[in-house]
Amino acid sequence: MSFLSWLLPRKKPVLSLEQQQRVLQLPPAAGWSDMSLRQQRWVVVDLETSGLNLNRDQVLSIGATVIEDGAIDLGQSFERTLLRAHTPLNPSVLLHGLGPGAIAAGSDPAQALLDFLAFVGESPLLAFHAPFDQHMLARALKDSLDYRLQHPFMDVAMLAPMLCPQVTQRDAGLDRWIEHFNLQIENRHNASADALATAELALILFSRARAQGIHSPLALQQRLNQWQRRKQVHSF
């Protein structure tokens, strides 16, 4: 992508009438609520992308599962591979089973993203290393639907060290936390499996939060904001 291309106006996506109507009918996202952590419906999401460049790479697949009533609801799950005909693939995506054949057989991105938003509804989102997923999802929604992502994200990768300060794992990845808590995860390294693993970790962390007197999503996010500010101050 050339420097001059950044100066050009963004080309709006061409949507069918049905897709335009679906965009208009999307419910507004709710903010952080003061209901109990158990009552909150959470959507745990994981993305596979063509690479790690926030401005150039694209979302290739979306996997998501739901935490509701204090448990993972396996009856509520989402998985889509997106059609990306002209996207160069980073060799690492082959580890996730997303070869050229899988991408060529994927769903229309606009349709897949509309289905995902319908699945999410008003629920907040959880992800491991959430800023990356949030940025990539927001870009995909803007490019394919001209839709601005409004849903709040909570970062499980930050919750874990905040709620488990006795664990001396600096910048630990998902695999390290799975190992620490002895979680029995059969599959890894595709979007749906990683979303499920993140959901299992999140349930443990919610239990830790309640034990520390944190009982709502709003209180949990506020505590996380305070913890991150303290970390920034101490890093100077």
TrEMBL record:
CDD domains: DEDDh
Superkingdom classification of source: Bacteria
Keywords assigned: Exonuclease, Hydrolase, Nuclease
One term of GO molecular function: nucleic acid binding
GO CC annotations on file: cytosol
InterPro entries found in the cross-reference section: Ribonucl_H (IPR013520), RNaseH-like_sf (IPR012337), RNaseH_sf (IPR036397)
Pfam family, one: RNase_T
SUPFAM superfamilies: Ribonuclease H-like (SSF53098)
BP-aspect Gene Ontology terms: DNA metabolic process
Domain Exonuclease, first and last residues per copy: 41-211
Protein name per its UniProtKB record: DNA polymerase III subunit epsilon
Source organism (scientific name): Pseudomonas taetrolens
